[in-house]
Design a protein that fits this description.
Strand content: 15-25%
Number of helices: 16
Structural class: alpha+beta
Radius of gyration: 24 Å
Number of domains: 3
Distance between the termini: 38 Å
Helix content: 25-40%
Shape: globular
Amino acid sequence: MLDYIFTRWRNKQVSARLEQFPSIIFTRLFSDKQQNIPFDVQINLFELAYQMHLSKPMSKISSSRRTKFNDYLPYIKRITNGIYLSFEISDMDSEQKGQAAEIIGEGLSRCLVSSLFNVQENSMNKLKGPWKRADFEAMTSNEESIVCESKGSFDNIPQSEVNRARTQKNSRNADIRIAAINEIGVLSRLIDPSSSDNRNFDRFSKLIIKTNHYIQIFKLAGQQELTRYFKLMKKRFQNKNMTDFPEFSEKQGLWFKLKYESQRQKINGKEFIGKVELIENNRIIFIGFDEKLLNVDTFELFKDYEKVYVNQNDNITTFISKDGVCFIEADLRALRVLFPEIRQDEIKNYQESTWLTDIDNMNEIVFSNYLQFIFKENNIEFQKEKKIRDRIADYTINYEGIIYHLELKLFRKKTQLIYKKDKDKLSEDIYQTKLIEETLKEKIRFLPDVDVKSQILITNKDKRLVHAPKDMIIFDRNELKKLLRDKYYFVKFLSKFK
């Protein structure tokens, strides 16, 4: 992802406008700007990609070892040429546009708020709670609290959505409460930064905010030991006697492991520790963090860097965010230069660390990338989105001369909870029937003029809950479990139907 951004462009302009700011706030923060007059903000695309990933709710990030920082690369690849940030979306359906706009919109909002309000990046956290709540919170360098609700669309955003954003951003107390309305590729509006009673940040609340930030980062990076370590650091801060809690010895053991067993890189006089993985096109990625964040004392004193660091040299691309997180992407041949102690056969592709919970939280675009990895590993020829009359097969594959047409259908886990409140009143059969009816209102249909026996549905549902044509081949949740254990299982599955 880093190399892709670097070789095409690094910065884009975004047109922004400040609206309905109380004069006391506007004068203090923006003496060089005028209300309701658009101005340009330069956005670093590495930072945008980073913030897009951090917009994912913690509950939707699997605890697996899979690196999730490549998941939104398909959106980054849609950025068009030109000075201003815009995306190619003509081939997306309405659902895909909605998913993309939500992710890009919040990433963009985070970049704008961070830039315009001088936010401490390691204080930015996704908010959780009721549906009608703001998206994220942060703290300025002056320790003022900010909450922001973001809306994103590739079309005009109706006033009803703007009003909803204003309601949601007012759901939390903060010194500054902002609605960020992003009509992507056109204009980003920062609206109505009302304030409420000041949220007091004592020493420990600031430390908790900071640890939550790094917990999310390393959960996204698939670094389980680091995620656990920062959770235990958080518990230490929450405990009045900071060394007297049940897991203290576990925390100390993790400290030694991370300190002395992690891979290392020294950049600009700073030591970064982390791990290396293989990504697409025979490239490696190192994700690490400033070693100062490992010790409690230096963690508390750690301040954001003044700016992001971006560099490319000898096909090695480096991005260091202001919160001290380091990404290095390079050709596999650079492994000996960067990490001479690692053998090539010791690192595996990040897709091989995928869990079923990862798939449950993927959208079809990310899941499609995982399947392409499986096809390539199994030497299966594939064609994406082949049109058959008025329908489109998600994939057409050729396995040993036999053509199969694949339909991908992911279902959200939350649909299984629709009838939970009624379950005790119903027999299991009736409960499952109701579940099927509600979950699968959209039937899986035949492709026209294609033998149904050559059509494969790939889904994260149990096949007993799938309303599909009788003879369609179903690669269901149970088959996915086998595939996640054995990346060559897909061809074994196909061999049953030769």
